[in-house]
Description:
The chain has helices at 20-34, 49-62, 75-84, 117-130, 161-169, 189-192, 227-235, 263-277, 290-298, 310-320, 343-355, 361-365, 384-394, 435-449; strands spanning 10-13, 38-43, 66-72, 89-93, 102-109, 155-157, 179-183, 201-205, 240-244, 251-254, 260-261, 281-285, 302-306, 324-326, 332-334, 340-341, 372-373, 377-380, 399-401, 406-409, 413-419, 425-432. It is of the alpha/beta class. Mean pLDDT is 94; it is low at 140-149.
Amino acid sequence: MSGIFKAYDIRGIFGKDLTEDIAFKIGRAFASYLNCRKVVVGQDMRPHSKPLFDALVLGLTMQGADVISLGLCSTPMSYFANGRLGADASIMITASHNPAEWNGFKLCRAQAVPLSGETGIGDIERIVLKLQFNPPAPKPGSACPPNFVQRCGRVSQYNILPEYTAHVKECAKLNRPIKIAADFANSVGVIEAKTLKGLVDIDPLYAELDGSFPNHEANPLKTETLAALQRKIKEGKYDFGAAFDGDADRVGFVDEKGDIVPMDMITALIAQSVLKKEKGKILYDLRSSWAVKEVIEENGGTPQMCRVGHAFIKQEMRAAKAVFAGELSGHYYFRDNYYTESSAMAVLFVANLLSQSNGPLSSLVAPLKRYFKSPEINSEVKDPSAVFNRLRQTYRCGKMFELDGLSMEFSDWWFNVRASNTEPLVRLNLEAKSKELLDQRQKELLAIIRGQ
């Protein structure tokens, strides 16, 4: 059971790692840990999300929490509902982009502040394993402990979509009609995109809700999942394409030619659009191109590098009062959405910028491709710390920082190496001012990492 408690959420295979009984205990532990009395709960379209909802809610209400059920919704909608409804906490039932047999829970405090392994998930795991719920419910037929008042919480339903739609529409600054193709991967991105009705003309692909993901995995970070969207773009006339992940907290983009737009380039584009409205701090994760920082500065913003992971980014955003943040994995965070993701807002900000431009999306992206960048490269290693030591020794003349893993910067190239939280892997990202230098340094780094 303990393997389901991850760094950023709770996730496992339904019926094996994650059962209804465990969901019931998680509900009790969550309410015990946060002492919450008003909890927003949403769910995705997976067939086992409903039985998990029933078990989770039974645990929450047994501990006295009132539950506001959002029904089927996207993860960004659950974050918005948490803040808008003044809830003490929220839980989204989803396994995001994982395959159909998986499910899980994304947990937040009030104002959509996420729980991570270090800020609550580890504590909830301990409560579940030790069955130390507070207060403990009396056994049937037994006398209540002194001063014990058992209060079962109530369950109500709430449709957050109209308010979320009005919230998203406040961002619209469209100077001309925009037509896009959208690949929903049979997921709740269909619901997320309802907020764009009347703003953007959407030609849908795989818009039938189906938690078995019959067409392809709902993960735009895997470029092979974008093939159908690319074909659709090439066969028609669209301004761009958008591909949503399984719970619609991430979105990938292709341009009007069907070419994939790197997700850090989207961070730079949205930064331009955001900064037209308001100057301020913008965060970008340390895997992003040098171009992202440069674009933020060129548009009057203040760039701030941050570590990878939504819990860390949201925490840094709040501390810095940043207006926007982007992550290489396709998460785009907005201060005005309680410092959380909104894929609908990301699509709308790209549409805004494009509608105000004289050229297509490809022409907006081209000036941002100033350097040569690798994809993230994974290597299986037995001892990540030994790898880091070899890299420190080899590149000791570079500018080193350890914000997240090990980063080294030089005048004409940089790299970052991070260890996986869950697998015996290290992840390499690097960028250089020429293709030749990129290839040379990549070969050199992989030899050191893999001990060749």
